Amino acid sequence: MVQLRECEKHGPFRGDVCPICGEEGKFLLNDWELTAISRMLAGILRHFPERFGVKLDDSGWADIYQIVKGIKRRHPRFRWLKDKHIIAIVLTDDKGRYQLDMENKRVRATYGHSIKVDLSDLPTDNIPEKLYYPTTEEEYEYIKEIGLQPGDRKWVHLSKTYRDAYIAGLHRVEEPIILEIDTKKAIENGHQIYRAAKTVFIASQIPPEFINISEKIDIEIPEEELEKIEEEKRRREKKLQRELEKKQEKSLK
C-alpha cells in the first residue's frame, strides 16, 4: 500500500517516510485515493477532458483548478480535493509522464494521447541512437511495408531500452517481438523524435528503412512487476467489456 505524503523540507513523496530525511511528513492521499485520482488525471489529460468540463489548449495544457473542479463535480466523494493533491501526484510520478507549469498553475501529459495535441515543443536533444518498439509477428509484416504509424494513440511511442519495450509489450501479448529503431539515421533524414519522459520518446512516424528486429535478450522480471502487469490487463479487459455491454444496451433501445 503506497501513500502520498508531504515532507515539510523536501516536498511530496510516495511511501511511509521521506526518502531524503526519513521524516513521516504530512498525509495527503491513501493508496486507493492516489490510484483513483491518478487514473482520472491521466484520462482527463490524454483522452476525455470534456467529461470533466476541462479544456486543453492546442499543446495539451490544462488549468489545475479546472481539473480539481471537474473531479469534485463528477465524483463528490472527492469534495476535499485541492490543487496541492494534483501537484503532488505530478511531482511524484515515477514515469515522468507529466509536465507542470507552476507559474501558470497548469499541467499536461507528455505522451499517451488518444486526442490530438501538439507536442512539437518537447525536447529534441539527448535522443539515444537506438530506441525500441514492441510488436507481434503479424504486426511486423505490416510494419515492414509502411513503418511505424500512430494507432489508437496520436503519436508513435518508442522505449529507451529493450527491457522497457519488452515490458510495454507484455501488456498486450505473452511474448512480444522487439524492434530496434535507428534513430540517428531517422533524425539525419528529417524525422523528428521528441523526448517525452524518462524512458519514452515519441515521433509522428518512423519509416521502415530505419526499423529492424532487435537481437533477442533474456529479460528477468520480478514476480511483483508481472502481477502488476496482469492486474492492469484484467482492468483493461473489464473496461472493454463494460464499454461493449453499454454499446449493446444502446443498440437494443
Automatic annotation (TrEMBL):
Pfam families: PTS_2-RNA. GO terms for biological process: tRNA splicing, via endonucleolytic cleavage and ligation. The keyword RNA-binding does not apply. InterPro entries: Ptrans_KptA/Tpt1, RNA_2'-PTrans_C, RNA_2'-PTrans_KptA, RNA_2'-PTrans_N. It is an enzyme of class 2 (transferase). One of its GO terms (molecular function) is NAD+ poly-ADP-ribosyltransferase activity. Keywords: NAD, Transferase. Its EC number is 2.7.1.-. Coiled coil: none annotated. PANTHER family: PUTATIVE PHOSPHOTRANSFERASE, TRNA 2'-PHOSPHOTRANSFERASE 1. Removes the 2'-phosphate from RNA via an intermediate in which the phosphate is ADP-ribosylated by NAD followed by a presumed transesterification to release the RNA and generate ADP-ribose 1''-2''-cyclic phosphate (APPR>P). May function as an ADP-ribosylase. Belongs to the KptA/TPT1 family. This is Probable RNA 2'-phosphotransferase. It comes from Aciduliprofundum boonei (strain DSM 19572 / T469).
